[in-house]
Amino acid sequence: MDALGGFWGLNGFNHRRKKNNSSGDRRNQRKSGSSDSVDVSRDAAGYQFPLKQAVTAGALTFTGDTIAQLSGRWKKRAAALKQSSSDKPDQEELWNLFSEHDWVRALRMSTYGFLLYGPGSYAWYQYLDRSLPKPTATNIVLKVLLNQVILGPSVIAVIFAWNNLWLGKISELGNKYQKDALPTLLYGFRFWVPVSILNFWVVPLQARVAFMSMGSVFWNFYLSSTLSK
What we know:
Layout: H1 2-8, H2 15-20, H3 22-45, H4 51-82, H5 91-99, H6 103-131, H7 137-167, H8 173-201, H9 208-227
Helix pairs in contact: 4-6, 4-9, 6-7, 7-8, 8-9
Family: Belongs to the peroxisomal membrane protein PXMP2/4 family.
Region (Disordered): 15-41
Protein name: Peroxisomal membrane protein
């Protein structure tokens, strides 16, 4: 509040009041000195990009996409080997498995995690913790429900749009939503509801983006395996 008072010219108005309450203010400052200084510095500097959470989300999204790509190519190779006389892939086949990696797709997914999912989900979890701070059963159920009703559809909408934008197919986004959005959301409910319960019940705030991104790694692998059947 001191920073706000100085900015708006209210320090003179509050000067006598601060003198009368100086002992109480000093006690309060001793209790919350470090946290207040952090908050003031953040307010003075404006929005601070959550770099740690963004890097974590970008790296884990890249990992999930890599697993999905390798899984898809491995299944194609395995199907081809069944039709040939070879029982197992040779070194050249294994090298081709990695050399055919789609790096543009990997970049597309990792930039989504870094620029959008990491910062966005971190801000979302901060908002939920401020709105529902107590770890009661009711609050946890509300957080899980809000996570599925608001965050889940938002993530699907954003990642579909991000993907189509990179592919230059933004005009086909409406058809993409109609065809794949609802099935993806319903599959996601099966996986993310228990993961979200663990996320809000056990995982601390600063680790939630990483935990959910770790879940994304397994979800991408599961989704890739399901769609390739």
